[in-house]
Specification:
Layout (H helix, E strand, L loop, with lengths): L1 E5 L7 E6 L21 E3 L9 E2 L2 E2 L3 H5 L29 E8 L2 E7 L9 E7 L8 E5 L5 E4 L5 E11 L2 E2 L6 E5 L12 E8 L2 E7 L11 E7 L8 E4 L6 E5 L4 E11 L2 E2 L6 E5 L8 E11 L4 E13 L2 E6 L4 E10 L3 E10 L9 E9 L4 E9 L5 E10 L1
Antiparallel strand pairs: 1-2, 2-18, 3-9, 4-5, 6-7, 7-10, 8-9, 8-11, 11-12, 11-13, 14-15, 15-18, 16-17, 16-19, 19-20, 19-21, 22-23, 22-29, 23-24, 24-25, 25-26, 26-27, 27-28, 28-29
Length: 399
Amino acid sequence: MRCVHLAVALSLFAVTSCGGSSSSPGAPSVSRPAASASPGVTGIAASATGGPSIFGAPLTDFARCLSGATDAACFAGARPVVGVITAGAAAPGAPGDLRAAIDHATVNLIWKPPTTGGPPVSYVLEAGSASGLSNLAVLSISDGRTSFTASNVANGTYYVRVKAQNAAGTSPPSNEVTVIVNAVTCQGPPLSPSGLASSVNGTTVTLTWIGPSGPPSNSPSTYIVEIGSAPFLSDLSISDLEGIATTMTANNVGAGKYVIRVRAKNACGTSGTSNEVVVNVVGAQGILAGTWLGTDRATRSNGQSAKLDLTFVVQHSGQTLVGAAAAIGFRFRVTQTEASSTVLTFAGTWTWGNSGQCAGQLAPGSITVDTTTNTMTGSFAGVNPDCLTETHDFTVTKQ
């Protein structure tokens, strides 16, 4: 699984999206011509073949190793770092924030130097056919730069990490990135994804969708998630998931209402949008806090009925609503019992005013909120201050 963090405007999605390919291929079967060596890049092991070398290791291009080359320069243990170990010298800490950008058959890697340990003098790139493996390439960047570009990389899925080196030793690995190269000439962009659905559990949001159908040459290589503050907008975020997983989970999502859609993308272009979903996340203050106006229909056990103007003043904390309608004389406290992308449901109790011989009795009831239209409907029934059974049905809209 591949984890991607998305920083989304207005506190949406301090997101963790998990994705990756459904299989982990071994070394690509398609061989490509050897590319010219990249400056400052040396093989890790000495080669039996001749040619220019640094410390006994031939100049080797990373892409050639990822295209099926099997000579010793693509594999084996780390090359010794030439240097003098002084008193107190330490191996570097792990590099950080390794990232990959793929443009057809070109892979661009960039990372940050370690912030702990001794200073590095070189870096080691490792690439494998599965997470944690280095069975495809182990190559050294001897000039200490923190970026690398490989061209003509064969199609496949690669798991890449980087280590730092100095005379005292080699660091632990950086984070691992999944590199998916799909340079097959496509016939057109993918069709649109479908079946986008969302679920909300507290401040965790999960999205799932169905990938597009169509010929393999039109298959997606990644998905784009668009987030807006209203239908058809993407004013909050446009994020490339850099993978073909059809699910994404975001944790610690900020309170608010978000309209989300997904597109599929490949080298030939980007699809149309999937269906949209509305995601409502309730934070500490809540999106329901405020004033709600509407009407209430009351019916008493003695046959009397009335239609009354209703004003609710609502406080929303966590999963709880607390409200009052002072003119009519009741207060309520209800707790969320269910949530979908557009509907929140609450259940709890009401209390009547403090006057009358039956004052203070509790009445059970429920509230349903349609967050698309900002409409709240509910009902409750109980014994009123005059000791009559009274039923209320109300509809209010947030102001």
